[in-house]
């Protein structure tokens, strides 16, 4: 009975044609479904119907979805969410193309989180029988899958408690300004054995800092940077290593200004992992271990 | 070509047709305050002191509200001057950079992009 992974991110874009160019040709995702003003996309190594939805009009996060196991997890989460005091409602098959019945929760941070176990299976682009390690004819970066999202919240301690109590996530790394609960600045939390499946830092409610794609390794990351240069994608920072999660990173922006990341590596966690603490005087190193310096605006810039 | 004047620095550059204020400055070797350069984050938002700009790319109301436009604010990373303009970048200094403009998407090209600096 558990949350499995980040399933999809649904974002607003100011211009759908330009967004498609970015997500399909630069990142290399495949469109799987279209309806008015929306495109649903899947990366090549993902099994499920889609992992990104682009919706024309505005900028920022509409909602995101986490896939859960099918053994009564939704009922259990609903009970716990209600006793936590979060508002939730059942969502129906067809609310999202390819996704079945599920649960829609409004987080204490005002973000809309959807949970589901029933989703149309499309399969990876290499199949399950004697598969090749990667498909021929990838476009651009050729991202294999999405990995995590980072959102902002006015009350990181409250949101951490929500993810812990309601969704059984655990913190892998915590950024703290002091010893009090209210001193929590950010938390990187996992549901399986990644260093993070969700992260949040202190900031405005309801906002998206970035969502990330996983790539194989450091050299895939550098190659991703080459493609970004070819396509004149604005880089926020990187390639660099994160102190927090130890992953490799490049942060960049889509044509509407939503921040994306390509992320590689990171250690493994698991149910017995003890959380790591970062103090504010080392926050720059935590975020950018290589350069040890980040712009003040980095954490504040969200869509 | 419309002229872009930045105050209080009193830097003047020419904007090419269709070029945003930020891109015109970058081509001339100046980095102003920006983050996403795609109209999403609002970091570049400053007063437009004089002149008119156009937004060929749609800009989200949540980033630059109509009321803000009316009150004289602009989004330099997306604002394309239609007349000579003056923007007030405030206290934050311009930083000298050597920035490369976007390349044509396919392979080799004879287009020269050299007259800018
Ligand atoms: S730099 Fe992000 S809106 Fe202009
Ligand atoms: Fe990340």
From TrEMBL, chain A:
<dbReference type="InterPro" id="IPR054560">
    <property type="entry name" value="XylE-like_N"/>
</dbReference>
<dbReference type="GO" id="GO:0018577">
    <property type="term" value="F:catechol 2,3-dioxygenase activity"/>
</dbReference>
<feature type="domain" description="VOC">
    <location>
        <begin position="145"/>
        <end position="265"/>
    </location>
</feature>
<dbReference type="InterPro" id="IPR004360">
    <property type="entry name" value="Glyas_Fos-R_dOase_dom"/>
</dbReference>
<keyword id="KW-0479">Metal-binding</keyword>
<dbReference type="GO" id="GO:0008198">
    <property type="term" value="F:ferrous iron binding"/>
</dbReference>
<keyword id="KW-0223">Dioxygenase</keyword>
<keyword id="KW-0560">Oxidoreductase</keyword>
<comment type="similarity">
    <text>Belongs to the extradiol ring-cleavage dioxygenase family.</text>
</comment>
<comment type="subunit">
    <text>Homotetramer.</text>
</comment>
<keyword id="KW-0677">Repeat</keyword>
<dbReference type="InterPro" id="IPR017624">
    <property type="entry name" value="Catechol_2-3_dOase"/>
</dbReference>
<feature type="domain" description="VOC">
    <location>
        <begin position="5"/>
        <end position="118"/>
    </location>
</feature>
<dbReference type="InterPro" id="IPR029068">
    <property type="entry name" value="Glyas_Bleomycin-R_OHBP_Dase"/>
</dbReference>
<protein>
    <submittedName>
        <fullName>Catechol 2,3-dioxygenase</fullName>
    </submittedName>
</protein>
<dbReference type="Pfam" id="PF22247">
    <property type="entry name" value="Diox-like_N"/>
</dbReference>
<dbReference type="Pfam" id="PF00903">
    <property type="entry name" value="Glyoxalase"/>
</dbReference>
<dbReference type="InterPro" id="IPR037523">
    <property type="entry name" value="VOC_core"/>
</dbReference>
<keyword id="KW-0058">Aromatic hydrocarbons catabolism</keyword>
UniProtKB/TrEMBL annotation, chain B:
<dbReference type="InterPro" id="IPR006058">
    <property type="entry name" value="2Fe2S_fd_BS"/>
</dbReference>
<keyword id="KW-0249">Electron transport</keyword>
<dbReference type="InterPro" id="IPR012675">
    <property type="entry name" value="Beta-grasp_dom_sf"/>
</dbReference>
<keyword id="KW-0479">Metal-binding</keyword>
<dbReference type="InterPro" id="IPR001041">
    <property type="entry name" value="2Fe-2S_ferredoxin-type"/>
</dbReference>
<keyword id="KW-0001">2Fe-2S</keyword>
<dbReference type="Pfam" id="PF00111">
    <property type="entry name" value="Fer2"/>
</dbReference>
<keyword id="KW-0411">Iron-sulfur</keyword>
<protein>
    <submittedName>
        <fullName>CDP-4-dehydro-6-deoxyglucose reductase</fullName>
    </submittedName>
</protein>
<dbReference type="GO" id="GO:0051537">
    <property type="term" value="F:2 iron, 2 sulfur cluster binding"/>
</dbReference>
<comment type="similarity">
    <text>Belongs to the 2Fe2S plant-type ferredoxin family.</text>
</comment>
<keyword id="KW-0813">Transport</keyword>
<feature type="domain" description="2Fe-2S ferredoxin-type">
    <location>
        <begin position="2"/>
        <end position="93"/>
    </location>
</feature>
<dbReference type="GO" id="GO:0046872">
    <property type="term" value="F:metal ion binding"/>
</dbReference>
<dbReference type="InterPro" id="IPR036010">
    <property type="entry name" value="2Fe-2S_ferredoxin-like_sf"/>
</dbReference>
<keyword id="KW-0408">Iron</keyword>
């Amino acid at each position: 009975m558990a949350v499995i992974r980040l399933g999809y991110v649904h974002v607003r874009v100011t211009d759908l044609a330009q967004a498609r160019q970015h997500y399909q040709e630069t990142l290399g995702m495949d469109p799987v479904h279209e309806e008015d003003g929306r495109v649903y996309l899947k990366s090549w190594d993902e099994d499920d119907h889609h992992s990104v939805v682009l919706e024309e009009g505005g900028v920022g996060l509409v909602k995101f979805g986490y896939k859960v196991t099918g053994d009564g997890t939704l009922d259990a989460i609903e009970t716990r969410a209600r006793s936590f005091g979060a508002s939730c409602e059942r969502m129906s098959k067809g609310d999202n193309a390819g996704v079945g019945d599920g649960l829609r929760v409004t987080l204490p941070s005002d973000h809309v989180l959807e949970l589901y176990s029933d989703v149309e299976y499309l399969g990876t682009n290499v199949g399950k029988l004697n598969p090749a390690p990667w498909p021929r004819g990838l476009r651009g970066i050729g991202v294999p899958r999405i990995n995590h999202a980072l959102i902002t919240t006015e009350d990181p301690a409250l949101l951490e408690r929500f993810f812990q109590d309601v969704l059984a996530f655990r913190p892998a790394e915590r950024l703290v300004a002091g010893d009090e609960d209210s001193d929590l600045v950010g938390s990187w939390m996992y549901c399986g054995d990644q260093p993070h499946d969700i992260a949040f830092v202190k900031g405005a409610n309801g906002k998206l800092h970035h969502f990330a794609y996983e790539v194989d390794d450091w050299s895939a990351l550098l190659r991703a940077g080459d493609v970004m240069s070819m396509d004149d994608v604005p880089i926020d920072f990187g390639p660099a290593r994160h102190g927090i999660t130890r992953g490799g990173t490049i942060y960049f922006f889509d044509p509407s200004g939503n921040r994306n990341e390509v992320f590689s590596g990171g250690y493994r966690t698991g149910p017995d992992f003890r959380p790591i603490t970062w103090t504010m005087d080392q926050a720059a190193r935590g975020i950018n271990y290589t350069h040890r310096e980040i712009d003040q605006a980095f954490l504040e810039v969200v869509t | 070509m419309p002229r872009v004047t930045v105050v209080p620095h009193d830097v003047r550059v020419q904007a090419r047709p269709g070029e945003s204020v930020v891109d015109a400055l970058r081509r001339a070797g100046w980095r102003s305050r920006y983050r996403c350069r795609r109209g999403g984050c609002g970091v570049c938002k400053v007063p437009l002191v004089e002149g008119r700009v156009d937004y060929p790319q749609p800009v989200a109301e949540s980033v630059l509200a109509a009321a803000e436009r009316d009150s004289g604010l602009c989004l330099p990373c997306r604002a394309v001057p239609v007349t000579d303009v003056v923007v007030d970048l405030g206290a934050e200094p311009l930083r000298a950079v050597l920035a490369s403009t976007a390349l044509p998407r396919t392979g080799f090209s004879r287009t020269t992009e050299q007259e800018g600096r």
